[in-house]
Every structure is written in C-alpha cells, then in structure tokens.
Amino acid sequence: MAYGRNLVAELPAILNRPYLVVTMADLWPRFAPQLSDGLAAVHLVDSLEIEDLERLPGTLPRFETIVGLGGGMAIDVAKYLAWRLNRPLFQVPTSMSVNAPFAHRAAVRDQGVLKYVGWHVPEMVYVDYDVIRSAPEHINRSSVGDIVCYYTAHWDWRMARDTGNCEAKWPYEQYWVDQARAVLDGVLDAAEDIRAVNDAGIRALMGALRWGGAAFSNTGWNPRPIEGSEHTFFYATEHLTKKPFLHGQIVSLGVLLMSFLQGNDPDFIKGALDRIGVAYQPQDMGLTWEEVRAGLRHMPEYHKMAGNLWYTAATHLPITEAYLDEVQAWIGG
C-alpha cells in the first residue's frame, strides 16, 4: 500500500499498456483526463452477478493491465477480471468504505446470493489522501463497519464454541481474536482523526482495513475472527430488498442490531460509532424499519439458502417481536 497525493496521474507512467479501467459511471468523468494515455477501454460497473461478469471478457479489447478505481463494486469487479484473465491489478480506492482493495477474493453474487470467489493479489493499492477526502464524509466514516464487526463476530465465535456449534475446520483460536481486537482497539483510539478524515485518520483506518482484507487468507480461509452475524444481517437484507448498500454502513447497523441481540454491551459499540460519526440509521441507507425487521427475520432462511455461512447469533437466538420493538427504540430513539 502506498499513501500520497496525485497518485492517479502517475498511473499511466507505470502501467503496462494498453490498460483497462474498471470504475463507476459517476466517477469516470472526474478521472478520465488523467487516464487517457494508454487506455484500452473503460468498464462501468453495473452488476456483480457472476453470469454478467462471465460475459465481460468477450466484450473487451486487448489489454495488459487492470486498474480498479472506485468503491467496493468497482474494486471487486476489477479483482474478478484480473483473476479470470490473469492480468496485473492496481487498485485505487476512492473512499474508505470497505476492506475490498486489500482482500484477495472477489465478493460477487450468484442469483443474489453472495459468494467470495477467485484469488488475486494487487501489485499495489494506492491511497491518495485528496481522493479519499473528496468522498462524502459519511462514506469514509462508514468503513469502520468492516472493523467494528469484529466485536460481534468474536461473541458469535465464543458462543459457537461454548454451545458445541463451532465448525471443525474453524475451532476457536484466542490468538486470532486477540490480533483482531488489537486492530479494533487501534481504530477506536483514532476515532477523532477518523471522524475528521484527516491524514492520520486515513492511515489509521486504511491500515486496519488492510489487516482485515488479508486476514481471511492469513487465517486459512477462516472468516470467524473478522465477520459474524452482523454480516448475515447485511446479506439477508440485501437479498430480501434487492437494494444496493454502502457496505460499511449497513454492517455498522448490523453490529448494533446483533450486539443488542447478543446482550454484548451494545451501548459501548454504539458510543464508538457515534464518536466517529457513522450514519447508521436505516433511513441513512434508504431502508425503512419494516425492511430492517424483515431482514432480521430473514436471516435463518438466508443462512440455509446460502450454504456457506457459519453458526452465529443470527441463527442461534430468536428474533422476537419484543426484541424488534426494543432494538428499534434503542437505535432510533
């Protein structure tokens, strides 16, 4: 990972040409003038469905290198194409919304169900302070969701161990819990800088996301140290509503919903999110409370449907009407 300024303009000088840029329609006009020299084509991402992604190679001209430019969707599609076509990959996140630039597998969808596929390590992840800071503050702050999720994930892992529901290939390991907790504590200690989205805050949060992105691989494909029931809520709600979400934002909401369900000192983690200024209310992400309630009820069914998730509070604890009323009053009050 490299930190700096004016990094996008330097890319044409280092990339093998011609190169493909994978980005979003709203971002490309801003960066096009800096990436015109040596450009083979631009793919503007509009789908994460595997069926759609598999058609892409046949529509593209020859290129030697791929640049992922944007948030999670662009980053993951660039990663997918780099894996399928065996091309060098350079990732340029335009916000701090997710750990995807540092993760080695692509988060895609198979008929609406999330799957992590492939394997590709980028040549470099370029973090440009000015590019990151130009994104809306609520997007940058939201990425703490991909770190505070360790809080609920560790409760889930301990519960699975204590109830005899731990997967044989993922036995409880205190070492990885301690490693992840140290990363979480580092982010909470940097709350003021992250809220301000200053250089120190960008380094603190992107450094934490870098650890989390590589952790899935480093733990032997064990997601338990970094992901739990809060992500199940996200996946179930996305599947049910068919709405796109800012990853860290809805995961932050999931952390609150699940920590309350777990009885896991939810006020502590809510206070942390408030200090950082995370916009976690359902209306902040285009959700109604009825949709949140439906997503929570949908978790056990989605867990069965997906077939690739692990035992967490999402399936262990009942979603009662009393819980739904209480958690809505607590978060929305």
TrEMBL record:
**Keywords of the record:** Cytoplasm, Lipid biosynthesis, Lipid metabolism, Metal-binding, NAD, NADP, Oxidoreductase, Phospholipid biosynthesis, Phospholipid metabolism
What is one Pfam family matched by this protein?
Answer: Fe-ADH_2
Gene3D superfamilies in the record, alphabetically? 3.40.50.1970, Dehydroquinate synthase-like - alpha domain
MF-aspect GO terms = metal ion binding; oxidoreductase activity, acting on CH-OH group of donors
Carries keyword NAD?
A: yes
Name a single GO biological process: phospholipid biosynthetic process
Record flagged with keyword Cell membrane: no
Q: What is the name of this protein?
A: Iron-containing alcohol dehydrogenase
